[in-house]
Amino acid sequence: MHEVALSHQLASAVQRAARGRTVLSVHLRIGALRQVVPESLEYAWGFVTKGSPMEKSELRIDWVPAEIECSNGHRRILDPNEYLDVRCQECNALTSVITGEEFAVVDIDVTSDR
């Protein structure tokens, strides 16, 4: 379960940004290719942040679909259950990932107290 490691790294970054203030929510963008299980991430976040100023914070997650594009400009959103095709289904050209690899903090809501 890599969600625990992700939660540790995320908590570290959020703690630095919050500068001692209580964290109310953390807004994330996570790509489908990161293979993050939402329930596992939320559970790990609760475990990692217990006893900290982030303890009662909410994770708000925008899920980004995996999209690929070939060298001829054909784009396709991948079904989460299919393997990543390296060739375009329309013209057989090689493809590259356009979206789906994101793992980013969009914003952090904190209280004004320190």
UniProtKB/TrEMBL annotation:
This is Hydrogenase maturation nickel metallochaperone HypA. One of its GO terms (molecular function) is metal ion binding. It comes from the Bacteria. Keywords: Metal-binding, Nickel, Zinc. Coiled coil: none annotated. InterPro entries: HypA/HybF (IPR000688). Pfam families: HypA.
